[in-house]
Amino acid sequence: MKATPVRTRADLRDFCELPLRLHPRDLYVPLPAPVIARHARTAKLYVVRDSRGRVVGRTSTHRDEAFVPCQLFGHTEFIDDDAVFATLVDVVTRDAGGRALFGPVALLPNQTGGVITSGFEDRGFVDSAWNPAYYPSLYERHGFTRRFQADTWVVEVAGSAAAYTFDDSRIAAERLVIRHGSRRGLRHQLPILREMLNASFARLGYYTEISAGQLAEQTDGLAFLLDEGLLLWLEKAGRPVAFVVAVPDISEFLMRTGGRLGPVEQLRLLATRSRYRRDAVLVVKGTVPGAQGQGYMTLLSREVHRHLEASGYRTLRSTFVERDNAASAASYRRAGGRPLHGYTFFERGAA
Question: Is there a domain that residue 98 lies in?
Answer without folding.
Answer: yes
